[in-house]
C-alpha cells in the first residue's frame, strides 16, 4: 500500500514543478471561491457589530434554548445512527446475500430525498390528519411540532452517514482477520470488539463527525416538523433563519458562525487525531 | 468468502451475526425510511392513476424537474472535474496549510443549508463581492439558474472529493512507474492508467452530488429567483402545493422525484457492485 | 475504547425520556401558544409583555405567551396538522377559514366573534422606493411600465403577496370599470416586471434593501415603516398609491385546542386585550392601523397617510379570490403560462 504522503518525489511519476504549482493554485482558487469566501463572509458579518454583540447573540435565552435543543437532538440521533450504521455495515460488508444492492440503495436514499419531502413524510404519518394522528391526539402524545419530531427528522437526514463511511472500508478489509479470530476460539462479540472495531475506528470516527455535523446543521426537514415555537422547538439553524427574518443580521450570522465553528473544530480534531496516530493508523491499514 | 455453493439467499460464511445485523438494519430502515415513504406513496394514490400523472407531469412540474435535474447535473459535472482536481492536489502534492484545507472540504456538510444560501446570495448578488465583479461582464449569477448551479456546486463538492480521495491514495506507484518505463508521457499515464482506476469513484461521487442536488432546498431558495417556469425548483413546487393544502398534488411530485432518485441510486450501486466484482 | 455501545444506548434512552418530558410539560393551563405570521414579531413581543402584566394585575395569575412565526399559509397548515395553537393571528381571513374548514377546532362563523371582522388592527399595501424616488413611481400604473423592476413575494406562498396582488387587481378593476380582461393584462404587465419571487414578505424586503435589487417593493405598510427604521432611514422612502386595499389580518381563538389545554379564558382575554386601549396603542406604535384610533397615540396615528381603501369583499371575498386567482391554474398561474 502506498503511503499517504510521498517522502521523496519520484520524477517519473510526478509532474513538472510548474504543472504542480498550477494545479495547486487552481484547486486553491476553486476552494477559495466556493468554500473559504462564504466561510469568511459568515464570520465577517458575525463580527460586524464587535465582539460584544457577538457574545450577546449566544447569551440571549432563545439562543441558549436553540443551542440546547440542537445538542439534545444530536445526542439522540447520532448514537442511534452509530448502532444502525455498524450493524448495516457488518451485514453488508461481511456477507453476500440476495437484495444487497437494494438494501444499500435504501440506505443511500435519505441522501437524495429532498429535505422538504423528508419533513413531509413525518407530517403525513404523525400529523393530526396523518395515519397515526388520531391515535396520538387521543393519547396526548406530541411528535410533530415537538422535540420527538425534530429528532426523527434529523435521524432520517443523517441516516446514511455512518453506514456509508463503514461499508467500503469493511469491504476492503475483507473477512480474514475475523475468521482467524473465530478459529482461535473468540466469540462473535469479542471478535467484533477486539478485531473489527480497531480496524474500522477511523472510518467510524469520520462517519460520526459528519453525522454529527449534519445533525446540528439540518434545516429543511426540521423546519417542516418544528412548528417554530420560540425558545422551544427552534434548533440553531431555525434560530438563524428567525434572526435573519427579524433583520438581526449580526446575531443570525453569529449563531451561524458558531455552527461553522463547531463543524471546523470537529474536522480539525479529526485531522489532528489522524496526524498523531498516523503511524498506528498506517500500521492498522497495512495489516 | 466466495464459496461455490450458492444458497438462494446468502452465501455461507463462518462469521456470526448475520441475522442480528440484518435484523437491526432492516428494522431500523423500515421504521425510519421505508414506512414513512410508503405513507407518501399511499397518499399520492389518493389522486388515482391518471390524476397522479397529471399532477406529476404538469407543464410547470416538468419545467421544475428540468431545472432541478439540469442544475444538479451541471453542478455535479463541475464537481466531478474540480473534485478530481482537489482530490489530486490533496493526495499528491504538499503545500503549507494543506491539512486545514483538507478539513475545510467537509464544511458544506456541516454548514446549515440556509446559511450557505444566504451567504452565497450575498456574495453573488449584483452588489456582492463576486457579483459586482461579474456584473460589468454581463454575467448575472444570483437569482438566475446559474445561481442554483453555484449553490449546488457548494453542496455537492465533498461528495466527489471524499469518494475520489481514498481511491487515488490506493493507486500503486509501481503501475505508474511501469507505464512511464514503457515510454508513456505523464498525461498519457494519467489518461490510460490513473483515470480508468478512479473513474468508478468519480462516477459515484458525481451520482451522490447529483442525487443530493436534485432535492436541495434550503440553500437554493435564497439564490434562485423562484419565477415559475424559469427558476422554480421542484422542491419549491412541493412547498407551494402544500401551502395550498394540496397534499395529494405535493406528494405526487414528491413521489415522482423519489422514484427517479431511487432508480438513479440503484443503478449506481449495481454499477459499483459489478465494478467491484470485476476487480476482485 | 471510544465507542461503548452500552453508553451510547443509555445516552439515547435518557435523551428520549428527556424529550418526552419536554413535549408533555408544555401546557400546564397558564401558558398559551400564539401562532402568527412573519411581520407581527415586533408587535407581539411588546404586546405579550403588556398582556402578561395586565393579566397578573387583574387576576394575580402568571401566564406565559409562547410565539410561533412563519409564512401565514405555512402556519395555518401547521395548525391543521396539529400544532397546538391556542390563538391564531394570521395575515388573512382565508387562512383561518381553511383551519375551520379542515378541522373542528374553530367554528365556521369565527369571524363574527370579535368586533371589526375579528381584525383588531388593519394595514394596507404601499410602495417602498429608493430615496428621492429616482424612477418617479407614484401609482400602480407606474409599476406596469417597461423597465421598472418590481419586488414582491410569491402570492402562492406569502399572505402579504396576495394582498399585493389583489390591491393591483382592485386598482385595475376600478380604473377600467370592472373589465376583467384589462385587469388581467395590467396585473400580467406588473408581474412581467418582477425579477424575483421570494417565498415570504421578509425575504422580499431583504432582496430589495440588502441586495439592492429592484426599483420598488410592494409591502405591507407596517413592513415598509419597519424596513425604513431598521435598515435605512436615509436610503428609502414610502410612496402611497392613490387607492389600495384594506388588509385585515385576522385573529381568533382556536377553541378546540384552548379547551383541551384549559386556556380558553386566557386565550379569549388575550385577543380582547388587542382591542383594549393598550393593545390599540401598541398596534399603532408598531405601524398597524388601529381600529379604535382614539386609544392610540395621536402622533402614531398621524404617521398613517390618508389612502382611499377598498375591501376584499368588494372583490367578492377571500374564497372567491383564492379560487379565481391563486388556486392551481388560476389567474396567477396563467400569467406564467408560456404561451402568453
Quick structural summary:
Chain A is an all-alpha fold and 287 residues long. Chain A has helices at residues 17-46, 50-59, 61-94, 100-112, 115-126, 133-138, 147-158, 160-173, 176-183, 188-217, 220-226, 236-245, 249-276, 278-286. In chain A, 78% of the residues lie in helices and 0% in strands.
Structure overview:
By secondary structure, chain A is mainly α. Chain A is 78% helix and 0% strand. Chain A contains 14 helices and no strands. Chain A has helices spanning 17-46, 50-59, 61-94, 100-112, 115-126, 133-138, 147-158, 160-173, 176-183, 188-217, 220-226, 236-245, 249-276, 278-286. In chain A, helix 5 packs across helix 7, helix 7 packs across helix 10 and helix 12 packs antiparallel against helix 13. Chain A is globular. Chain A starts with 16 loop residues before the first helix and ends with a helix. Mean pLDDT of chain A is 85; it is low at 1-9 and 283-287. Chain B is mainly alpha-helical. Chain B contains 13 helices and no strands. Chain B has helices at 18-44, 48-56, 59-92, 98-104, 107-110, 113-124, 129-134, 145-170, 173-181, 186-215, 220-223, 234-243, 247-279. Chain B starts with 17 loop residues before the first helix and ends with a helix. In chain C, the strands form two sheets. In chain C, strands 4, 5, 6, 7, 8, 9, 11 and 12 form an eight-stranded mixed β-sheet that branches. A four-stranded mixed β-sheet of chain C has the order 2-1-3-10. Chain C is globular and about 60 Å long. Chains in contact: A-B, A-C, B-C. The interface between A and B is large, with 111 and 109 residues.
Fold blueprint:
The complex is a heterotrimer of chains A (287), B (280) and C (340).
Chain A: H1 17-46, H2 50-59, H3 61-94, H4 100-112, H5 115-126, H6 133-138, H7 147-158, H8 160-173, H9 176-183, H10 188-217, H11 220-226, H12 236-245, H13 249-276, H14 278-286
Helix pairs in contact in A: 1-13, 2-13, 3-7, 3-8, 3-10, 5-7, 5-11, 7-10, 7-11, 8-10, 9-10, 10-13, 12-13
Chain B: H1 18-44, H2 48-56, H3 59-92, H4 98-104, H5 107-110, H6 113-124, H7 129-134, H8 145-170, H9 173-181, H10 186-215, H11 220-223, H12 234-243, H13 247-279
Chain C: H1 5-24, E1 31-37, H2 41-59, E2 64-70, H3 72-80, E3 87-89, H4 93-102, H5 115-118, E4 121-130, H6 140-143, E5 150-153, H7 159-175, H8 180-192, E6 197-198, H9 201-209, E7 216-220, H10 221-231, E8 236-239, E9 243-247, E10 251-253, H11 255-261, H12 264-275, H13 277-285, E11 289-290, H14 298-302, E12 308-310, H15 317-326, H16 331-335
Parallel strand pairs in C: 1-2, 1-3, 5-6, 5-7, 9-12
Antiparallel strand pairs in C: 3-10, 4-7, 4-8, 4-9, 4-11
Amino acid at each position: 500500500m502506498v503511503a499517504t504522503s510521498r517522502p521523496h518525489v519520484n520524477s517519473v511519476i510526478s509532474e513538472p514543478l510548474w504543472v504542480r504549482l498550477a494545479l495547486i493554485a487552481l484547486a486553491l482558487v476553486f476552494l477559495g471561491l466556493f468554500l473559504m469566501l462564504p466561510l469568511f463572509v459568515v464570520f465577517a458579518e458575525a463580527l460586524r457589530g464587535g465582539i460584544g454583540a457577538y457574545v450577546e447573540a449566544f447569551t440571549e435565552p432563545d439562543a441558549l434554548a436553540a443551542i440546547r435543543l440542537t445538542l439534545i437532538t444530536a445526542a439522540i440521533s447520532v448514537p442511534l445512527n452509530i448502532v444502525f450504521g455498524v450493524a448495516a455495515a457488518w451485514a453488508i460488508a461481511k456477507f453476500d446475500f440476495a437484495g444487497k444492492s437494494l438494501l444499500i440503495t435504501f440506505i443511500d436514499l435519505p441522501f437524495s430525498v429532498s429535505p422538504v419531502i423528508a419533513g413531509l413524510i413525518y407530517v403525513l404519518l404523525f400529523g393530526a390528519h396523518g395515519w397515526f394522528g388520531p391515535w396520538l391526539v387521543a393519547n396526548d402524545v406530541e411528535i410533530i411540532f415537538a422535540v420527538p419530531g425534530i429528532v426523527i427528522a434529523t435521524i432520517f437526514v443523517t441516516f446514511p452517514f455512518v453506514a456509508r463511511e463503514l461499508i467500503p472500508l469493511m469491504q476492503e478489509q475483507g473477512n480474514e482477520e475475523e475468521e482467524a479470530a473465530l478459529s482461535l476460539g473468540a466469540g462473535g462479540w469479542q471478535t467484533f470488539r477486539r478485531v473489527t472495531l480497531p480496524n474500522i475506528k477511523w472510518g467510524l470516527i469520520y462517519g460520526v463527525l459528519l453525522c454529527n455535523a449534519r445533525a446540528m446543521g439540518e434545516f429543511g426537514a426540521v423546519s417542516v416538523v418544528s412548528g417554530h415555537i420560540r425558545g422551544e422547538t427552534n434548533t440553531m439553524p431555525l434560530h438563524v433563519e428567525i434572526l435573519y427574518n427579524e433583520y438581526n443580521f449580526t446575531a443570525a450570522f453569529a449563531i451561524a458562525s458558531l455552527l461553522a465553528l463547531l463543524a471546523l473544530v470537529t474536522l480539525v480534531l479529526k485531522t489532528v487525531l489522524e496526524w498523531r496516530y498516523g503511524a498506528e493508523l498506517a500500521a492498522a491499514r497495512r495489516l | 468468502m466466495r464459496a461455490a455453493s450458492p444458497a438462494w439467499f446468502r452465501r455461507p460464511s463462518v462469521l456470526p451475526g448475520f441475522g442480528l445485523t440484518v435484523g437491526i438494519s432492516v428494522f431500523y430502515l423500515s421504521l425510519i425510511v421505508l414506512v414513512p415513504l410508503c405513507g407518501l406513496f399511499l397518499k399520492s394514490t389518493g389522486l388515482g392513476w391518471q390524476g397522479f400523472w397529471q399532477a406529476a407531469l404538469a407543464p410547470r412540474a416538468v419545467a421544475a424537474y428540468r431545472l432541478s435535474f439540469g442544475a444538479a447535473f451541471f453542478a455535479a459535472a463541475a464537481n466531478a472535474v474540480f473534485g478530481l482536481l482537489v482530490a489530486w492536489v490533496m493526495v499528491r502534492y504538499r503545500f503549507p496549510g494543506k491539512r486545514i484545507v483538507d478539513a475545510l472540504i467537509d464544511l458544506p456538510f456541516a454548514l446549515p443549508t440556509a446559511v450557505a444560501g444566504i451567504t452565497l446570495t450575498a456574495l453573488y448578488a449584483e452588489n456582492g463581492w463576486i457579483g459586482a465583479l461579474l456584473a460589468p461582464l454581463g454575467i448575472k449569477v444570483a437569482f438566475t439558474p446559474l445561481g442554483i448551479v453555484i449553490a449546488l456546486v457548494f453542496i455537492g463538492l465533498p461528495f466527489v472529493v471524499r469518494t475520489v480521495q481514498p481511491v487515488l491514495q490506493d493507486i500503486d506507484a509501481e503501475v505508474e512507474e511501469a507505464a512511464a518505463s514503457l515510454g508513456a508521457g505523464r498525461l498519457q499515464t494519467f489518461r490510460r492508467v490513473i483515470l480508468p482506476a478512479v473513474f468508478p469513484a468519480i462516477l459515484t461521487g458525481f451520482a451522490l452530488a447529483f442525487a443530493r442536488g436534485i432535492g436541495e432546498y434550503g440553500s437554493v431558495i435564497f439564490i434562485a429567483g423562484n419565477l415559475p417556469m424559469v427558476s422554480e425548483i421542484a422542491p419549491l413546487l412541493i412547498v407551494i402545493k402544500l401551502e395550498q393544502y394540496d397534499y395529494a398534488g405535493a406528494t405526487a411530485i414528491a413521489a415522482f422525484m423519489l422514484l427517479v432518485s431511487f432508480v438513479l441510486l440503484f443503478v449506481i450501486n449495481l454499477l459499483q457492485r459489478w465494478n467491484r466484482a470485476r476487480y476482485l | 475504547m471510544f465507542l461503548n455501545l452500552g453508553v451510547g444506548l443509555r445516552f439515547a434512552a435518557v435523551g428520549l425520556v428527556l424529550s418526552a418530558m419536554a413535549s408533555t410539560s408544555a401546557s400546564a393551563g397558564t401558558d398559551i401558544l400564539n401562532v402568527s405570521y412573519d411581520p407581527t414579531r415586533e408587535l407581539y413581543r411588546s404586546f405579550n409583555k403588556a398582556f402578561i402584566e395586565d393579566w397578573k394585575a387583574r387576576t394575580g395569575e402568571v401566564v406565559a405567551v409562547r410565539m410561533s412565526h412563519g409564512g401565514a399559509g405555512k402556519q395555518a397548515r401547521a395548525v391543521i396538522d396539529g400544532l397546538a395553537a391556542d390563538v391564531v393571528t394570521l395575515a388573512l381571513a382565508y387562512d383561518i377559514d381553511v383551519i375551520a374548514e379542515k378541522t373542528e377546532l374553530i367554528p365556521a362563523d369565527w369571524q363574527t366573534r370579535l368586533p371589526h371582522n375579528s381584525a383588531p388592527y388593519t394595514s394596507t399595501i404601499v410602495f417602498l422606493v429608493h430615496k428621492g424616488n429616482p424612477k418617479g413611481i407614484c401609482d400602480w400604473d407606474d409599476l406596469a411600465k417597461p423597465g421598472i423592476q418590481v419586488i414582491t413575494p410569491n402570492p402562492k406562498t406569502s399572505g402579504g403577496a396576495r394582498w399585493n396582488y389583489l390591491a393591483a387587481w382592485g386598482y385595475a378593476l376600478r380604473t377600467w370599470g370592472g373589465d376583467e380582461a384589462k385587469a388581467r393584462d395590467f396585473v400580467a404587465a406588473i408581474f412581467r416586471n418582477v425579477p424575483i419571487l421570494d417565498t415570504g414578505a421578509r425575504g422580499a424586503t431583504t432582496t430589495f434593501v440588502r441586495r439592492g435589487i429592484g426599483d420598488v417593493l410592494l409591502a405591507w405598510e407596517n413592513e415598509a415603516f419597519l424596513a425604513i427604521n431598521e435598515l435605512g432611514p436615509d436610503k428609502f422612502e414610502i410612496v402611497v398609491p392613490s387607492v389600495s386595499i384594506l388588509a385585515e389580518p385576522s385573529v381568533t381563538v382556536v377553541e378546540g385546542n384552548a379547551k383541551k389545554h384549559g386556556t380558553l379564558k386566557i386565550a379569549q382575554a388575550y385577543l380582547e386585550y388587542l382591542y383594549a386601549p393598550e393593545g390599540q396603542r401598541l398596534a399603532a406604535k408598531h405601524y398597524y392601523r388601529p381600529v379604535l384610533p382614539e386609544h392610540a397615540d395621536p402622533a402614531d396615528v398621524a404617521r398613517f397617510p390618508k389612502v382611499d381603501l377598498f375591501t376584499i369583499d368588494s372583490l367578492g371575498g377571500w374564497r372567491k379570490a383564492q379560487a379565481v386567482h391563486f388556486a392551481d391554474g388560476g389567474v396567477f398561474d396563467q400569467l406564467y403560462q408560456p404561451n402568453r
